[in-house]
Write a structure and sequence with these properties.
Blueprint (H helix, E strand, L loop, with lengths): L10 H14 L9 H16 L9 H14 L9 H18 L1
């Protein structure tokens, strides 16, 4: 875990954020954007941990991705979009945890 007990970004999550941002900005990822920061953090985390690791989506992470999408899309999240799928996966993961 990183500072403050937060989970570390994975490459899969960073890629999802990047693809969302790129779609909204004609293929461009701006320096210092959420997508750029997530990609940088994920690369550092992966290198520190010795390779790719699968991490489940959490409500917090999905919310972050949805927020980035909403900011780029006048507050809208399209059905079937990557952020919508991330939120669905996070909800399923939370339900699984609640059942155990």
């Amino acid at each position: 875990m990183s500072k403050g007990g937060e989970k570390k970004w994975t490459q899969a999550e960073a890629s999802l954020i990047q693809s969302t941002e790129a779609r909204k900005n004609n293929g461009k990822i701006e320096k210092g954007s959420l997508a750029a920061k997530a990609q940088s953090a994920a690369a550092k985390n992966e290198k520190a941990e010795g390779g790719k690791k699968k991490t489940e989506w959490t409500e917090e992470r999905a919310s972050c991705v949805q927020s980035a999408e909403a900011k780029k899309n006048d507050g809208k999240i399209e059905k079937g979009s990557h952020p919508a799928k991330a939120q669905s996966a996070a909800a399923k993961n939370e339900n699984k945890k609640a059942e155990t």
